[in-house]
């Protein structure tokens, strides 16, 4: 019986029919999606922290407005994604508990500190740039609510990418010190950005199954390569140097070759030992506790509206 259902399920996926919340799905498909979507949601809300920290120090009102809008967008992305995970039967409180207790992962990139204003440029250009590269494929993910959430998220991420690039372009056209700030920022964010795509394909535990289920459409290494190929010409326009002596165009492959990622550093950060892991979780926990009154008020308001609706229905009847 289960085998038959699984065959029908795979046939649907192969025929590019979207899977919707009430459709039958293998338990492992549901669990994989809850894992990936919730980690993605956590990444969005933890990702607000390095930039949120710069809102009060933005160098002009224009920059401040753009940064506030960007950070607010990331909160919205978290919201869509937690909602998508809920359509699979996950409880939001459980997901947040997993984040706060360190059981759930979130993107390694957000465990690095944003130490200068140029980092706001590098995060937009590189981190959002890498996020878009990965997420455009997710707009075609086989699970309907996830795919649909990704469409809007990608549109917003492309604004984020441009605002970051423009910050760096301004710095690179500025004084020598400003250009150095941009270079220093690229030096610190380049390798962590390449790590965002996850382990090499040979080490990726979930890729084969996720690709068969069309959750992922491209492998970690394919996306990383596409990101490098797209980013090198952008660095040339900025006039700053990517910190990789092995980076060079390979005519035969039609792609840039690049150096080896420090995988020991990657796994160390993923396991919770990066420069900011502890601080990020503490900040998220504090934000959750401080926000309790907002959640309580929202529930009380929803209950009041329900009661009013019921009372006016009773009157009409
Ligand atoms: N960091 O078998 P795979 C953003 C884990 S959003 C930490 O290859 P998979 C927006 C992985 O979970 C950025 N852990 O895994 C923004 C697994 O562990 P598990 C986030 C990582 O799932 C911008 C293990 O390694 N984007 O930036 C990482 O098939 C600016 C084995 O890996 C998404 O989440 C990592 N980098 O492929 C916000 C997109 N990489 O779960 C603010 C959706 C891997 O078995 C400011 N996610 N791991 O314990 C995906 O596409 C996939 O989950 C991958 C990983 C590609 C991230």
Secondary-structure topology with pairs:
Blueprint: H1 2-14, H2 27-46, H3 48-52, H4 61-86, H5 92-100, H6 118-138, H7 144-172, H8 176-195, H9 207-212, H10 220-238, E1 248-250, E2 255-257, H11 263-273, H12 277-290, H13 292-316
In short:
By secondary structure, the protein is mostly helical.
Protein model, in words:
The chain is mainly α and 317 residues long. 69% of the residues lie in helices and 2% in strands. The protein contains 13 helices and 2 strands. It has a two-stranded antiparallel ribbon with strand order 1-2. The protein is globular, with a radius of gyration of 22 Å. The relative contact order is 0.11. Bound molecules: Phenylacetyl coenzyme A. The site of Phenylacetyl coenzyme A has 28 residues, from helix 2, helix 6 and helix 9. Residues 35-36, 39-40, 43-44, 47, 74, 105, 107-108, 123, 127-128, 131, 134, 195-199, 204-207, 210, 220, 270 line the site of Phenylacetyl coenzyme A (FAQ).
Q: Say how many strands there are.
A: 2
Distance between the termini: 48 Å
Q: What spatial order of strands do you see in the largest sheet?
A: 1-2
What is the rounded Rg?
Answer: 22 Å
Structural class assignment: mainly alpha
Strand content: under 5%
Helical fraction: 55-70%
Main sheet summary: 2 strands, antiparallel
- Which distinct ligands sit in these coordinates? Phenylacetyl coenzyme A
N-to-C order of helices and strands: HHHHHHHHHHEEHHH
Q: State the helix count.
A: 13
The overall pLDDT average reads 97
**Rough outline:** globular
Low-confidence stretches: none
């Amino acid at each position: 019986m289960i085998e038959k259902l699984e065959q029908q399920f795979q046939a649907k996926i192969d025929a590019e029919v979207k899977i919707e919340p009430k459709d039958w799905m293998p338990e492992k498909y549901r669990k994989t999606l809850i894992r990936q979507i919730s980690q993605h949601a956590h990444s969005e809300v933890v990702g607000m922290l390095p930039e949120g920290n710069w809102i009060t120090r933005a160098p002009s009102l224009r920059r401040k407005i753009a940064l506030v809008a960007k950070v607010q967008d990331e909160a919205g992305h978290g919201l869509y994604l937690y909602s998508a995970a809920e359509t699979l039967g996950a409880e939001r409180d459980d997901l947040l508990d997993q984040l706060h207790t360190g059981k759930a992962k979130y993107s390694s990139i957000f465990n690095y500190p944003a130490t200068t204003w140029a980092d706001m440029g590098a995060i937009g250009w590189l981190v959002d740039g890498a996020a878009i590269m990965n997420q455009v494929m997710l707009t075609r993910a086989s699970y309907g609510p996830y795919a649909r959430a990704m469409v809007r998220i990608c549109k917003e991420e492309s604004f984020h990418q441009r605002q970051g690039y423009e910050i760096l372009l301004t710095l690179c056209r500025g004084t020598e010190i400003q250009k150095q700030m941009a270079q220093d920022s690229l030096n610190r964010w380049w390798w962590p950005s390449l790590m965002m795509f996850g382990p090499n394909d040979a080490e990726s535990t979930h890729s084969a199954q996720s690709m068969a289920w069309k959750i992922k459409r491209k492998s970690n290494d394919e996306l990383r390569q596409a990101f490098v190929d797209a980013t090198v010409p952008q660095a040339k326009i900025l006039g700053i140097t990517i910190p990789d002596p092995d980076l060079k165009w390979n005519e035969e492959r039609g792609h840039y070759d690049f150096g080896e990622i420090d995988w020991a550093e990657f796994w160390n950060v993923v396991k919770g030992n990066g420069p900011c892991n502890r601080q990020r979780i503490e900040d998220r926990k504090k934000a959750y506790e401080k926000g309790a009154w907002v959640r309580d008020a929202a529930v009380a308001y929803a209950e009041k509206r329900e009661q009013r609706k019921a009372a006016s229905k009773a009157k009409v009847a």
